[in-house]
Amino acid sequence: MADSYYEVPEEDISLLYPHGGIAADREIGKLTEVTCEQLELNYMIELKSCDISSFYTCDTDTILYRQATFSDMAEVPELSGVLSKMIPFLNDITELRRLGTGDPSSENYLYSIAEVELYISLMEILKDELLPLAPRLKSPAFRKFAERINTLTKSEYYRDINDRLKELTSRVREIKSVTIGVNLDSSMRADKAGVISVNNEPFRSGDLLNKMLRLDFKKDDMTTIAPLIPFKKGQTENSQNALSNAFNGALTDIYRQSIKSWKNVIRHYVLDNTDFLLRMMPEIEFVTKAADLINSLKNVGCVLTVPEIKPMHEKAFRAEGLRNPVVALKLESETVPNDFEFDENGMIFVLTGPNRGGKSVITCAVGLAFVMAQLGLPVAADRCVISPVDMIFTHFPQGGEDTIDKGRLGEECSRLSAIFEEVTEYSLVLLDESLSSTGSYEGAYIASEVLEGFSMVKCRGIFSTHLHDLAAATDSINEATLPKGGVRVDNLVADISGGERTFRIIREKPDGKSYARDIADKYGLSMEKILDKIQRNGD
Prior knowledge:
Elements: H1 23-26, E1 30-31, H2 33-38, H3 41-44, H4 60-75, H5 78-99, H6 106-130, H7 140-154, H8 156-174, E2 177-184, E3 190-199, H9 208-214, H10 237-254, H11 256-279, H12 281-299, E4 308-309, E5 317-322, H13 325-331, E6 338-342, E7 348-352, H14 359-374, E8 383-386, E9 391-395, H15 402-420, E10 428-432, H16 440-457, E11 460-464, H17 468-472, H18 474-481, E12 489-497, E13 500-506, H19 514-522, H20 527-538
Parallel strand pairs: 1-9, 4-8, 7-11, 7-12, 9-10, 10-11
Antiparallel strand pairs: 2-3, 5-6, 5-8, 12-13
């Protein structure tokens, strides 16, 4: 087979990175394992080939490139089916690569042929199912992918390798048996042995008496007189393997030239043109799973919007009708929307309110909005504007072995201290009921110090807490940090009305007694209702 048709492959195709997935794109941004776990990212998208954090980016060009990719997935839903069909083929090719490593042999020869068969089958699927979709594709990723498949399947080299494959597979599949010759010494012991011929029909078991009675030795060469001992029933596996290895070695010698030339075909063409597909495997899995997530959210009534991406230095975040997609999936219904914004009057918020009033839900919703946007996905909101963050840090209640030695407060402080070692002004910090393991006075004091620190870092953040003394301390925190260049800390309150939680988040300074009065009144424990009960009992 001539190599003159072969051309050096083009740059890698990537569904998620505008420059073929080069490392520079991937190094921007970080999601820790703890953050992924506490935001329940694996509940939304569970990947087998890699971790979802490997796709996190804060590069605006990369995010816009992905938005176009997912727009095509939404507008051309058949793409999901095509990509899903690719995965089993790519998994099989990967396994054959693993099995086919090592010295050339007849077995490796068969692995190589099988790999090319898989490659051609995959390319035929893409030719028949992806290319007809090409006129409807708008994203750079899918347009480049379709162009590459079109170029490959129309090339003379592809047609040549297809013809060569048919020839080789035909030859291999015709092999049904081999004829061996064995020289004996004077003591009737095997002296030398070798393959005499390769046959296109299997041998038939027989015995010497039957063959002698038929007296038809010349026309019955494929009937054995006696079986070779290693293949008799009851022989050890080692004995059988010894003869199999001998046959394989002989067949390798016979097909050595074919193996060598075929390996050249694999090396010079198939490897190059399957490698770019194999490198796309994690992206293909992520894109298809993410498309499933989007459909699931739509099916439970969760509103989605493609966020407007602003430069990182603007530190923008405005969301109208923000929802928590994890809660929507778990409840299988629409959730209460809230408006949320980071601005010059509040880059860090102290969020207070009643237990189970929606504080944790909105805290996670903000984090999930950033994650989904920076993965290239639509956000669970009516409208959203986002400047990417380089890292997202979460500090939620959790157990751990460290609590044995340090105590829970020590463990919480240790985790908070670790955040300060990495946080930057472009990070997002989400704290949920942090420092709740100590008394309110001690907790509020340490929390105030922590908030002053984050203010001086100039990051964005939410501190969801039951420490109402901390909410009352925002003015003093701002007095201490704003003159030094810190960002402003503001208040949010989880609303309650008539003793009922509304799950609305309001931007206002909290009245620590207001929701308590509502609950007391609801359950008849306000002083007015208590006195009324006493009065009635006295009557």
